[in-house]
Fold:
Amino acid sequence: MSRARRMWKALEPYHAITYFSPETRKATDALGLKGGWMSYFGCRAAPLGPVGPEIVAAGFYNFHPAMVARSLPDAWSYATPAQLLEARLTAVDNAVRRLFPDSDFGRAAELGRRAAEIAPVAGRPIAAANAALEWPDEPHLVLWQATTILRESRGDGHVAALVAAGLSPCQALVTLSAAGGPSKEVFQLNRRWSDEEWSAAEEDLRSRGLLDADGGLTESGRAVRQQVEDTTDSLAEQGWRALGDELTVELHDLVRPLSAVLMSDGLIPSDNPMAMRWD
Structure:
């Protein structure tokens, strides 16, 4: 496993507190937002400002555009992006205090912020939007904001890798599932591509020699999928190389135990659409 992938695995669950903790839904319900997906799209897109569904679907990439359009721009009629930024930070504050009441986040916050401030943002709009936000004061929130910038930097790079590989949003999910990632059912539940759209994506992949008759990746398909993952890691590696081996390892070792708790106590489902597997 590459260094960039090890760091993603160590940091992603801490960032994902905002998606899976009940505190986030409670905070956005209080603002009037309707349902978990409006909460998700509103909170995650808030750093971009009151953008429309087309921009969010393009940037988030693998969600069905119609799924995004059911939440945006309606979310902005209930709460401004500034209100949602405050709500998500307050929710993470409450969740972390509940989950880790006795933890010392000082050093992890210091290293996380340093890593986030040198993470690449050029050509990475979601990462850049999060990096432009003011830093919170509390160390556990500094760490959360840092992990958010770092994962969005990696995620924007991943989208670039998928585009370069010629994989459409639905095809990205089909190939990831075929490579041993989350099942079709998990992706359809959380990204909302229909059976017909999934089948059309498979048929196009077969015509390109990337998928076999049984829905498995061909040798060429495995190579394309590996190219996507390798490119994603390579693009994310820029920031970790700048931080240096010693500090990168230290940050990893400080945050990984926190993420292990989040993955083992049921907050984050084991079969999740992030393709986050834990061992």
The mean pLDDT is 96.
